[in-house]
Amino acid sequence: MEQTQIDALRARPVAAFDHLIEGKYVPASDGGRLDIISPIDGTVMTTTAAGTVDDMQAAIASARAAFEDGRWAAQPPAARKKVLMKWADLIEANALELAVLGVRDNGTEIGMALKAEPGSAAGTIRYYAEALDKIYGEIAATPGDILGMIHKEPVGVVGAIIPWNFPMMIGAWKLGPALAMGNSVVLKPSETASLSLMRMAALALEAGLPPGVLNAITGEGRVVGEAMGLSMDVDVLVFTGSGATGRRLMEYSARSNMKRVYLELGGKSPNIVFADAPDLDAAAKVAAAGIFRNAGQVCVAGSRLLVEASVHDAFVAAVAKASEAMRVGDPLDVNTHIGAVNSEVQLKANLSFVETARAEGGQVITGGGRILQETGGYYMAPTIVTGVTRDATLSQKEVFGPVLGVTAFETEDEAIALANSTVYGLAGAAWTANLGRAHRMVRAVRTGVMHINTYGGADATVPLGGVGQSGNGSDKSLHAIEKYVNLKTAWIKL
Ligand code: NAD
């Protein structure tokens, strides 16, 4: 990755984005535009269409028509595979351009963005393209005079609502399996990070996806997202984002056509360090990266550090040292470890969590404030708060920013009780050299993902999904396909 290439791309003006409906770029029905602010310096870099309810309905109608006439669903699997493979190739061929565009929009440090965004999006789409002609129906164990067959049919029109932290990666988690199974999709990117995903959607059409099979609408969640949620013609809604929005989507479903709703929500993931961890220094560095990369805007971020009391002080000092060695700043500088916070609103929310933590008796041992204000961008120092009690706000509420709360524990049972003391259950980790303890932790901590002696990092082959108020259903792996198919029984008398 060359800094000069990145600098050349960042100097390019960004064209205004319109909706993508039926293979055409279309402005908002009322001409409305939304300013897109770069978190790097707080300037307006371009605009997108500010979608209306009519725009969303037009996109859904187009997707429905595309599904019903079979222009995609009825294509032979090999033909669908070819298009999706080509799409993955195009994403890879344009990876740096996509990554820089995305970073200008959402602030993720470029090193991480390049790998996690176009890199992982291409990998995910290829994974489902490769899988699509290896997924079979079933023949049931029926009496001899009956043939019982179970077909897997596409659901129809999928609505996909995407957050701002990793738009291409999370977008691909939905688009890959949905399109592979023959569905049509209406995409609704986040208003604060839509550009790279809109560009990635356009590449799908370039790869040969028929018009109307993938439509994309920009604009505010409470307008176009709500219209999607309330639509009578969306069959399945897949969502990644906050719990508050997830709750609304379930209400929209109940108030409309009872569409299936799959939610990937937030977390308050415990990173549990036992004194018998194989390498405490390595664990400290991974713990710092596990909360502070992408300025903490990672759903699975290890935001609660639970440390065995006997090593607490030394371990926390090592995490503080590792975090202070991480360079915060311009996310398009290849040497930056921690980029910008996505928006001013998010930055203010992060800072207010630190104030609350102080008021509730926590000690801020490093960071705690906004930095680099002179850039006009939204940057925050990695922040560590010790002495955080089990019921403190910092233990219970997701910050979604670079703020780590630390709590000491004495016993394995206490660690498990602390780990399970929130409404969330997305991810977690335990660091121990004791094999029995490692397996006990995997079983005892209620999460969708449990890491042992590492934090983060997983590929398309394994599911990611939450329990409790972290969501339902899973992204990634062959299990994700269940969300995008209906099972149909054929009961045939022979
Ligand atoms: P958000 O809920 O504010 O927005 C997510 C999306 O929902 C956006 O596209 C937004 O426009 C849309 N939206 C907002 N209001 C809506 C409404 N009334 N109806 C329909 N759509 C609406 O979340 P965010 O701030 O973009 O993302 C951060 C959250 O996402 C965090 O809680 C984070 O933990 C979570 N997240 C979870 C995962 C996961 O896999 N579990 C991954 C990444 C992020």
Overview of the molecule:
By secondary structure, the protein is α/β, with parallel strands linked by helices. It is 38% helix and 20% strand. The chain has 15 helices and 21 strands. It has a 7-stranded mixed β-sheet with strand order 14-17-18-13-12-19-20, with helices on both faces. A 5-stranded parallel β-sheet has the order 9-8-7-10-11, sandwiched between helices. A hairpin with a 6-residue loop joins β3 and β4 (44-49). α1 crosses α4 (95-106). The longest helix is centred in the N-terminal third of the chain and has 22 residues, at 110-131. It is globular, with a radius of gyration of 23 Å. The mean pLDDT is 98. It binds nicotinamide-adenine-dinucleotide. Nicotinamide-adenine-dinucleotide binds at residues 161-165, 170, 188, 190-191, 221-222, 225-226, 229, 240-242, 245, 248, 264-267, 299, 398, 400, 426, 464, 466, 471.
Largest sheet strand order: 14-17-18-13-12-19-20
Strand content: 15-25%
- Multimer state: single chain
Bound molecules: nicotinamide-adenine-dinucleotide
- Biggest sheet: strands, sense, closure? 7 strands, mixed
Q: What are the low-pLDDT stretches, counting only 5+ consecutive residues below 50?
A: none
Q: How many beta-strand segments?
A: 21
Structural class designation: alpha/beta
Helix content: 25-40%
Overall mean pLDDT stands at 98
Shape descriptor reads globular
Helical stretch tally: 15
- What integer value in Å does the Rg equal? 23 Å
What is the rounded distance between the termini? Answer: 63 Å
